[in-house]
């Protein structure tokens, strides 16, 4: 059985996640502009707003056995 879970950035994490035109998914520090490419993670758009995590529809979520190493990630249980 897979131990992978969906993860979203916490709304108060100080980091944002964006998809670049070349297809890379990049985590960016909002205070320092530090950037890290998320290689090896599967991703999807969130389908519906999620009040529990503060995640908006169309935000990006990533799949992994643990959260990515940059930013404050929250396990995502919604769709």
UniProtKB/TrEMBL annotation:
This is Maltose regulon activator MalT. It comes from Rhodococcus spongiicola.
